[in-house]
Amino acid sequence: MSVAQETPVKVSTQASPPPRRNGPWAGYSHLLMARMLELKREPEVVFWVFVFPLLLALGLGIAFRNKPADAVSVAVVSGVGAQDAQALLARSPQHELFKIQILDAQSAHKAFRLGKFDLVIEPDGKGGFAYRYDPARPESVLAKSETDDAMQAAAGRKDAVTTTTVSSSEPGSRYIDFLIPGLLGMNLMNSGMWGIGFALVDMRQRKLLKRFVGTPMRRGHFLLALASSRLILMIIEVGLLLAFGVLFFHLRVLGSIAAIALIAAIGSLTFGGVGLLTASRAQKIESVSGLINLVMMPMWIFSGVFFSYERFPALIHPVIKALPLTALNDALRASILEGTPILHQWPRLLVMIAWGGVSFALAIKWFRWT
Questions:
Q1: For 40, which of 63, 92, 153, 296 is 20 to 30 Å away at the CA?
Q2: Residues 6+ apart with CB under 8 A from 370
Q3: Percent of the chain with pLDDT over 70
Q4: pLDDT of 351
Q5: Cβ atoms of residues 72 and 97 within 8 Å
């Protein structure tokens, strides 16, 4: 009877690879990558973050482009002396600037009240004229000055001092040059506030945040991943809008690209922190929408996006300069239009860093997963 021979079993002497351990920032990196993939699936983000600022710059740049002076619309009250006023303006050196229409007193006053005319000329029947204008309307004040100068010159007035005028509309002194840095700051604020605050509350409403509670991920890493995800979009935002201004409106960028990128990055993180704080406890989309608008609206008005905050009373200028969007806009304009070195802008950078740091610290403290 044969005995079956046993087959020897080979035992591997190689040690098994050690288990893979995630680093302390693994949660942050995975969340950052997940956030970028989420943005990729949201086509509306492409429009509001990238396309809308370009359309806004194009529309405002065309509206305030360099063009001949607008005609001064003047209504002359009919009666004795009306033809004399019309003749004086027709003989003036700037006669092509005036659009003149003779109307009865009631029609002229009504049309002026509705904004159809910039100025009303009322002859007194004795060779003199009275100007009816609105001091609250800049175009009406300008119309009064230009009309009076034209009529006085046509009547034979001679200036005691010879003066000349030079029109300045070169790049750097136009409205579009003032506007583009303001649009950059506004877009960084909008993307930071809406892109982070809205996304955070949306995840809370869909119960996605509850799934993170049982993980070893730190709360700070989660919030930092949301805030820093805007930095990648920031590079594209700033590059597109600056390139658009240079190509279409011949914007002169005097500062270094590195300084502009650093300012934009600090601004993006600043408003990312403010957005996190705004949405740290909001439970519904309607709630966070109201809070974001409440935070952003004063900066839209006071921080010099579309016009200079110097128009406001000097008493509130320190308060306006303490707003993060004001500091961001001033820093961008100083770097882009004046070439100011980054080291000379430390007060503005300090304002943004203070807003972003305090907001992020409070967001970590007050944040709720549910």
A1: 296
A2: 204, 209, 210, 213
A3: 75
A4: 94
A5: yes
Q: Is the pTM of this model over 0.85?
A: no
CA-to-CA distance for 315 and 157, rounded, in angstroms? 43
Q: Provide the pairing of β-strand 72-77 with 119-123.
A: parallel
CA distance 55 to 220: 36
Mean pLDDT confidence for 297-316: 87
What are the chain's domains? Answer: 72-154 (3.40.1710.10), 171-366 (no CATH)
Q: Could you report the per-residue pLDDT of 206-239, keeping only the tens digit for each?
A: 777 777 666 666 767 777 777 676 777 777 778 8
- The two structure tokens encoding residue 162: 């010879």
pLDDT in tens, 308-339: 888 888 899 999 999 999 999 999 999 998 88
- Dist. CA 38–CA 223, nearest whole Å: 16
Lowest mean pLDDT segment, chosen from 63-67, 288-292, 331-335, 365-369: 63-67
Contact in structure between 77 and 86 (CB atoms under 8 Å): no
Q: Could you tell me the CA-to-CA distances from 9 to 2, 6, 14, 16, 200 in Å, in that order?
A: 21, 9, 15, 18, 58
Which amino acid is residue 342, in one-letter code? I
Whole-number average pLDDT of the chain? 78
